[in-house]
Amino acid sequence: MKRVRWSKLIAASTACIVAMTTFSSISIAHPGRTDSNGGHTCRTNCEKWGLEYGEYHYHNGGSKSSSKKSSSSKSSKSSSSKSTTNNKSNSKPGNTTNKQAKENKPVVITEVAAAITLNSETTKLPIQAVRHDSQLMLPLIDTLKALQTNYSIKDNKIYISSAKRQVIVPIKHNHYTLSIDGTINKLAAPMIVYKGKFMVPLQLLRDALPSTVEWNESAKTINISL
After folding, report:
1. HSE-up of 193 (CA within 13 Å, CB side)?
2. pLDDT tens for residues 185-202?
């Protein structure tokens, strides 16, 4: 008799445990298939289960991570990248416009009524000095002749020879560089062609020739000393 009671008691206990386990499983889980990791993305009745739509989670107390947040992060990065690209593209037209405006700016060349002295004696050149890009300029070949400096012209270049240096000046309009003893020198203002004359800034004469070239603004005189 006692054995029958114990058997019933054990059977009843087992039934209670099974029922509790089943109820617990049901209360934690909700509809939807799980993947090989035991989780899935919520697509139905997410608020009912305390989840956000698109949230990836695990059943039965597993850890959960939100794919929605990941997607949001990717979207934020994409927006940031697009914003940066747009900023760059917006800045380019402005830079191009400024560059074009500078290139299209009219260049003003004015003739200057300046006297020229060579070793403190007044001399004359076939053309007067000009001012271009705020720089005073003289005709190079006429100046070389006045200074009795040896030079030659070949392949559209002027070769100036002296005991101290060798200079090569390309005859190019709006050109900035020349060669002095094999070294490229850049001028502050470009060399130009004006009324058929190849004009150079006074800086070239100072750098290329063994001479002193000075401009006296008040007296409007260019002083050249050999």
Report:
1. 5
2. 999 999 999 989 999 998
> Residue 140: which of 155, 157, 123 has the closest Cα?
157
- Give the integer Cα–Cα distance in Å for 153 and 169: 9
Question: For the chain, how many residues are written?
Answer: 226
Distance CA 12, CA 6 (A): 10
Going by C-alpha positions, the residue among 147, 143, 149, 198 that lies closest to residue 170 is 198
Residue listed under structure tokens 């990836």: 56
Domains of the chain in start order, with CATH, are: 2-29+37-69 (no CATH), 109-225 (3.30.457.10)
Q: For the whole model, what pTM was predicted?
A: 0.51
Candidate ranges 1-10, 45-54, 197-206; pick with highest mean pLDDT: 197-206
